[in-house]
Amino acid sequence: MFSFCADPETLSGLTWVSCYLTTGKHMGFYASFGTVMLLLLVTAPTALLFGFGGAMAARSVVAPIRWFGKSYTSIVRGVPDIAFFLFFVIALDQGIEWMRHKVKCPDWPEAVRQGNDFVVCSEAKMPLSSSAQWVHEIYGFSLAVLTFAIVFGAFAANVLFGAMRAVPRAQIETAEAYGMSRRQAFWRILVPQMWVYALPGLSNLWMILIKATPLLFLLGVEDIVYWARELGGLKTNAFAYPHPDWRLWYFLGLLVFYLVLTRVSEIALARMMTKLTHGQATTGGEAQRKAAA
Amino acid sequence: MSCLETIQAYGLRSIGIGERLLPRSDFTLCDQFTLIGSGMIWNIYFGALALFIGFFMATGLALAKFSSNIWLRKPAEWFIFILRGSPLFIQFFLAYETFVLLPKVGVDINLGFAEITAETRWLTKAWLGALIVLFLNTAAYSGEIFYGALRSIPKGDVEAADAYGLTGWTRFKRIIWPTMLRLAWPAYTNEAIFLFHATTLVFFSGFPAWQQSGDALYYANYFADKTFNPFVPYPILAGYFILLTLSVITVFGLINRKLNRHLPQEQRRKMRIRPQFMR
C-alpha cells in the first residue's frame, strides 16, 4: 500500500500498524464487510417478497395452497433457523444439479445417488468445474442469499399474516359493501393498511437478519468471521507481520461493528414508525395527535 | 447391529457413554435417529439451565433498568444493549477466545461433603463456557421483556398495594413480581423457544466438540457430510425440535394458566407467536 511498507522487518510502531492494516489480506477483510451489507440489502426485499407470498398462500381459499402456506409460516417456529441454513445450502445445490443432470444427460446409465455419493455428469456440475474462481464464489453467495431469503421469508410470512389479520374486519366488510371483489378488497384496502401493524414485527425481523449474517461463515462464504479468524490467528516469524493470537481483538471489532449497525437501524426504524403511525386510528396515532394539540 | 443394540451403544454417546467410534458407513435410519436424539441431551441441558439461571438475572436486570438510581440503571442498560445488539455467534467466538487466553489456574471449592477443584480450563469447554454465554444472552433478552412488562403494570394495582400498606419487599413479592411475570409470559415463552433453537449454534462457533460428543445439529451435520444426503438427518432433527418446542409451549402454557388463574376467563392472555419479541 505505502511505499515504506516494502520491508516489514524494519518497521516499528505506528508505521508497522499502518502497513499491517493495509496488507492485501486486510483489504479482503474490509471488502467482506461489503459482502455482509450486500447480503442484507439483497436478502431483505427478497425475504419480504417470499413472506408476502407465504402470507397470501396461508390466506388462500384453495385448501392445498393454504396448507402449504400454513406449514411454511409455522415451520420456523419449531425448528432452529441454523438447521435450515445447513440443510438448504446442500439441498438447493443438489436440487439444481439434479435438474441440470436430467436435462443435459438424459441417457446417463447410472443412478445419481450411489450409496454415500451424489454423482451427476460433468456437464451438469454447477458451476462447471472449468469455470473461474469468481463464478464459484458468486454461486456460493447466491445460494446463501436464497437460503437466507427462504428462512427469513417464513419469518416475514408469520409477521405479515398476523398484520393482515390485525386490520379491522369492518374495513373489509365496508369494501365488500361497496361491491369490491375479494381481490380488490385485498389489494386496495387490506394491503395499504396492514403495514403499520406489520412494522414492529418487521423491524424486529430486520434486527434478527442483521444478527444472522455471521452465519454466512457456516455456509462457506468468506465473510467477516472467516477473515477475523484467519487474520487474528497466531502468526509466527515465517510471516511478514508476526503477532501473537489477536483473534479476541478482531472479534471485538466485529462486535462493535454489529452494535453500531443495530443501533443505527433501531433509530431509523423508530423514525419510520413515527411516520407510519401518523394519522392512523391506533393508540400510537392518537398519542401523536394529542401531543401535537 | 440391531436397533436395540444401536440404542444401547449410542443412546448416551453425546455425553461420552457408550461406543467410542461413531458409525462410519452403512448408516441406518436407526443410527441417525439414535445419535441425533442423543445429541438433544446437550440442547436440553444448555437451554434448560440457561433459562433457569437466566430467569433470576433477568428479573434483577429488569429491576435495575427500571430503577431511578443511575448507578444501577446505566450498567443494566449497557449490558442489555451489548448482548441484544450483537449476534450470539460473535459472542460465542469472543467468549471462547477470551477464555482461552485466561491463565490456567485451579480454585479449590469446599462443598461440605466433598472438595472439588474448579479450573479455568473448564471455561474453554462447551459445557461451561457456552452455558455462560447462553445464560448471559438470555438474561439480556428476558431482562428487556421483563422491563417492558414492569413498565406496563397497571397503576391501579400498585396504588392498591400502597393503600393496603404493602411496602418494599412484600409489595414486590406479592404484587409487582407476579404481575410482571403475568404480563411478560407470552413474550417470555417465545424467548424460551428461540433460546432452545440458539443452543444448536454452540458446536459451530469455536467451542470444540470434545471426542465427537456434540449436540443434535452436530450429529445431523455429521451424517449429512458423510452420506452427502441432507434429506434424512435434517428432517429427523426437525422432528426432534418440533417435539421440544411443543413441550416448551406445554410447560409454559401451564405456568401461564397458573399465573392468570385469578382473572376472568375472557381476560386471559392467549399464548401465540409474537413476532415483535423474537430474538
Secondary-structure blueprint:
The complex is a heterodimer of chains A (293) and B (279).
Chain A: H1 13-20, H2 24-58, H3 63-78, H4 81-104, E1 113-114, E2 117-118, H5 133-166, H6 169-177, H7 182-212, H8 224-232, H9 247-277, H10 283-292
Antiparallel strand pairs in A: 1-2
Helix pairs in contact in A: 2-3, 2-5, 2-8, 3-5, 4-5, 5-7, 6-7, 7-9, 8-9
Chain B: H1 3-10, H2 29-66, H3 70-85, H4 88-101, E1 106-110, E2 115-119, H5 126-151, H6 155-163, H7 168-198, H8 216-227, H9 233-259
Antiparallel strand pairs in B: 1-2
CA(first)-CA(last) distance of chain B: 43 Å
Helix- and strand-based class of chain A?
A: mainly alpha
Overall geometry of chain B: globular
Strand content of chain B: under 5%
What is the highest CATH level, the class of chain B? Mainly Alpha
Number of helices of chain A: 10
In terms of per-residue confidence, which ranges of chain A show pLDDT below 50 for 5 or more consecutive residues? none
Shape of chain A: flat
CATH class of the domain at 32-224 in chain A: Mainly Alpha
The fourth-level CATH homologous superfamily of chain B is: MetI-like
Helical fraction of chain A equals over 70%
Largest sheet of chain B: 2 strands, antiparallel
Q: What features would you describe in this structure?
A:
The complex is a heterodimer of chains A (293) and B (279). Chain A has a domain at 32-224: MetI-like (MetI-like fold), CATH 1.10.3720.10. Chain A is 71% helix and 1% strand. Chain A has 10 helices and 2 strands, in the order H-H-H-H-E-E-H-H-H-H-H-H. Chain A has helices at 13-20, 24-58, 63-78, 81-104, 133-166, 169-177, 182-212, 224-232, 247-277, 283-292, and strands at residues 113-114, 117-118. A two-stranded antiparallel ribbon of chain A has the order 1-2. In chain A, helix 2 (24-58) packs parallel to helix 5. By secondary structure, chain B is mainly alpha-helical. Chain B has a single domain, classed as MetI-like fold (Orthogonal Bundle). Chain B contains 9 helices and 2 strands, in the order ααααββααααα. A two-stranded antiparallel sheet of chain B has the order 1-2. In chain B, strand 1 (106-110) and strand 2 form a beta hairpin. Chain B starts with a helix and ends in a 20-residue tail after the last helix. The mean pLDDT of chain B is 88. Chains A and B meet through helix 3, helix 4, strand 2, helix 5 and helix 7 of A and helix 3, helix 4, helix 7, helix 8 and helix 9 of B.
